Amino acid sequence: MHGSGRVKIVDVAAAAGVSATTVSHVISGRRPVSAATRARVEDAVRRLGYQADPSARGLRTQRTDTVGLVVPDITNPFNTELAAGIQAVAYARGLLTVVCEAPMTGGPQLPAVLGQLTARRLDGIVLGRFGARRADLDLIAGSGARLVRLGTRIADGPGDVVRGAETEGMRDLVRCLVGERGYRRIGFIGGEAGVEPGGERYEGYRQALAEAGRAVPEELVAWTGFTREGGRAGAALLLDAAEPPDAVVCANDLIAIGALDVARARGIDVPGRLAVTGYDDIDAASMVSPALTTVVNPAREIGRSAARLLVDRLDGDTGPAREVVLTHQVVRRASA
Amino acid sequence: MHGSGRVKIVDVAAAAGVSATTVSHVISGRRPVSAATRARVEDAVRRLGYQADPSARGLRTQRTDTVGLVVPDITNPFNTELAAGIQAVAYARGLLTVVCEAPMTGGPQLPAVLGQLTARRLDGIVLGRFGARRADLDLIAGSGARLVRLGTRIADGPGDVVRGAETEGMRDLVRCLVGERGYRRIGFIGGEAGVEPGGERYEGYRQALAEAGRAVPEELVAWTGFTREGGRAGAALLLDAAEPPDAVVCANDLIAIGALDVARARGIDVPGRLAVTGYDDIDAASMVSPALTTVVNPAREIGRSAARLLVDRLDGDTGPAREVVLTHQVVRRASA
DNA sequence: TCACGTATCCAAATCGTTTTGCATGACAGG
DNA sequence: CCTGTCATGCAAAACGATTTGGATACGTGA
C-alpha cells in the first residue's frame, strides 16, 4: 500500500532514472522512446501505481475526457438504456460519462443545468429529448463541447443528430389499428406539448388516419406529460368525452401504462372494449398485463450511436453535421 | 455572445480594474473586499460570463467537486432512484455526480471501474450493493475519496454506511405468509450468492420460518442473479422440485417479476396456486399483474442520505464512521 | 510626530502535467 | 577525420486558478 493518489510523474521519473518529460512521452507515445527506457518507465509506473492527475492534465490539454448526457427524467427506462449505451462506448475510449437530469417541471431547469455542465468544460454533450431552445444549443456549441442532439432534426441547430424513425413508426402502428383491427374512434395522448418526440409521433398518428380518409378527432387528443401520471390524466380526459374512444394511442410506454391503470380502475376490459398502445418498448411494456402493443425504439443503440458520433468528433472529424436515423419495429402484444 | 468558455480571471480583473487576486477573493469570500470593489467585480463577472476553469481550480485546491456512484446494474430501477436521490443533494451543493456501472458478470469489473474513478480524484464515492472485497474498499479509502457503502455493515470496512432494515423487512413479509396466509412450502430465490442484500434478506426469511418452528427447505432455495432473467431461472428450478412450493419469496422485485413470467408461461395461477413476493417496491412492482406484494425500500431516500453523509464529510466532519438505517414497510398487493 | 493597527489590494509562488526547442551521442557517408 | 542525420532525453515554459506574505494608505492614540 503506497501513498496511493499521491505519487506524481517526477516520482516515476526518479524511480526509472529519467526525466518527467520522458515518462510523459512513454505514456502518451507522442515521441519515440528507446525500448529499454520504455520498459524501465512502464515498470516504475506499475510499481508505484502512478495515475496522472486529471486536473493537471486537463489544465494543460484543455480537455476533460468527460462527456455528459442531459435528460428530462432520469427514472424513465428509455433514458436509462440510453445512458447505458453511451457509457459503454465512452468507457471503452477512457471517457467518463455524467448523466444529468433537467426536469421539465420542478427542480433545476435546462439552462441552469447546461450552465453547470459548460462550466465543467465537458468535451461533449448528448442532449436528450427536450423542447430545447435555440439559445440552449448555442450555449453548448459556444462552450466548445461537441453536441449530439436526440430526436430532433438536423436543421434545427448546431451539432449532429440521432433519432429513431418516429413518425414512420407511429404511422405503421396506427395503420394496424385502423386496418386489420378496425378501430373506429382512435384517441391520442401526447407528452408535454411541444416536446419531442411527441410532435413526430403525433404526426405519424395523423398521417395514418389521413391515409384512411379520416380526420383527427380533436376532442380525443390530450397533451399531458411523458409519465405514468400523465397517462392517467390523459386517459381520464379521453374516457370522459361525450363519445369515448375504442382505442388510445399513447406517445410512450409510461403514458400507456398510466392509461391501463385508469382502464383497470374503471373496469374497462383491454383490449376488449379499449385498445391501448405505447411507444419505446421499455422493459415494463412486456411486464404489464395485458402486455403492451408498442414500437421498439432501440434506446441502447441510440446511445451507442450518439457516443460514437461524439468520439469521432473528438478524434478530429470536422465534416458536416451528420444525422443517424435508426429503424423501428412494431411489436404486437395483447393490449390491442 | 462572447468567446464563452474562453474568458479567464485576468480578463475579469482587467474589466473591473483590479487584480486577479481580488477577483478570486470576491468569488470565494476568503478575504474581505470593500463593497465598492466587490460590486465592480461581480458586475464584470456577470457581463463577461466568467466561469472558473475547473481543471485549474482543481489543480490548485486538490478537489474536483465531483462524486461518484457505482452500481452493478444501471438499468435496475432501484439503482436509478438511488442515483436521482444522490444527484438531487449533490447538485444543490454544486457537486457533479457520475454514475458508473460495474456489471457482476461481463463488462468491466469492479476493480477496473474503481481504478478509473480513483484516477479521476473524485471527492467522494457511493458504493452500491456489491459483494465488494476489502481490497476494493481500501483502494477507495486510500485514494483520498470519502466513502459511503450501501447495504452492508459498518464493521465490514472503512467509510460510512446507509442501509435499509433488510432482515427485519423480509422477516415481517414472510411472517405474513406463514401466519395469516398459511402457506406451507415457502421457497426463496436470491441474487448472486454472497452479494448483499441477498444475505440479509435470506436471513429474514430464515428467521421468520424459525419463529414458526420450521426449517428452511434447502431444496427450495436458489441463488441466481438480481435480474428478471435470474428470477426465471430460479423459478423454473423451484417449480421442477419433487415437492414444489406454494409460495416463492424473491430477493428483489426483478426476480419476482421473472418468477411471474414462469408462472404465466406454465399456466400456474398466482396467487391461487402460487404466491410470489418481491422486495424494493420499484415502479414496475405495481405495474405487473398480479401486482407484487413486496417491501418498500426507499431508494431515493437512501440516495439522499448517502449524499448527505458525503457532503458532511467534505465539509470537514471527521467524527467516527456513521451508519444510517432506514425503515421498511410491507406492501400487500395481489400476488400473495 | 511617531508607532502601530486595520483595511485593502497586489505580486509571486504554487499545484502536476504536457509540449517545444535544444543538447548530446552515435553512426554513416565522404 | 569531418560533417550532417538520426535517435534519444532533458530543461523550461506554458495552462489558469488559489493562496500567502507583503505593500500601501489611512486612522488613532500617545
From TrEMBL, chains A, B:
Pfam families: LacI (PF00356), Peripla_BP_3 (PF13377). Coiled coil: none annotated. It comes from the Bacteria. Keywords: DNA-binding, Transcription, Transcription regulation. Residues 7-61 form the HTH lacI-type domain. The keyword Transcription regulation applies. Gene3D superfamilies: 3.40.50.2300, lambda repressor-like DNA-binding domains. The keyword DNA-binding applies. This is Substrate-binding domain-containing protein.
